[in-house]
Design goal:
By secondary structure, the chain is α/β, with parallel strands linked by helices. It has four helices and 15 strands.
Length: about 240
Amino acid sequence: MLVSDLHYDLRKLDWVLAEAAGVDLVAIAGDVLDVGSALPLDAQIAVVLEYLTRMADRTTTVVCSGNHDLDHRTAEGEKATAWITEARGAGVVVDGDSVEVADWLVTACPWWEGPHSLARMEAGLALAEARRSDRWLWVYHGPPEGPLSWTGSRHFGDPELPRLLDRHHPDVVLCGHIHQAPYVDGGAWFEQREGTWLFNSGFQTGPIPAHVLLDLSAGRAEWWSLQGQGTIDLGEAQAS
C-alpha cells in the first residue's frame, strides 16, 4: 500500500496503522512531518517514530524522507534527514535501506538537496542493485517531470529521476510530493516509462489518505480518493 504526504495528520497515521496488518507492505513516500505545523519538529518526530514502530510490528514498513522531513544540515551544508534513521532499530526500512518482500527488492531512497546528498543516494542505489535478483521497487518522494509532477499550472519533477530510471530500470517507483497530480487535467496517479511503473497517490484532507493498493502478483493497482478512484491492469496498461 502506498501513502505519502501525511504531513503529521494523526488521523491519517491512525488509519495507516489500522490498515497495516492487512497488507504485506506499507510504503510511505515522504513528508511524514509538516514544517508548517505550529508543533515543533522534535515533538512531531517523537510521535511519528512511535507510529512507525507500531506499523513495523504489524507489517513490513518502508519510509523515505521528503522535503518536509529535513531536520539538519550536512557537513557540506545540504539539508538532510537524520531522525528517520532512529526508526531503523525498530525494524522500519528507511533511507538507503532495502528489504525483500516476496520476490521483490524494496528500496527507500532519501530526499536529496544537492550534489553530495545526490551522490550518497546514488551510491545506495548501486549497493541495492547488487542485491537485485528479480523485481525492484523504489520508494522515492519526488516523481519525474510528467503527469505525476503536474500541479495544474506547472511541473515540479525531480530532475535526476529520469536519468536514474534509465540507468537502473526499477520495475515500480512509488512517489508523492505533488499533491494535485491525480486530480487535475494533465495529471495522473500512474505513469509507465518503458518497463517502469510509477505511482503518486496524491493528497487529500480528512482522516483517510489517498492511497494506492498494489497487487503485484496479480499485476493490478487500485487508487482511492474522495474525489475519484481508478484501477489499472499493469499487464494490459488500460485504466478504468
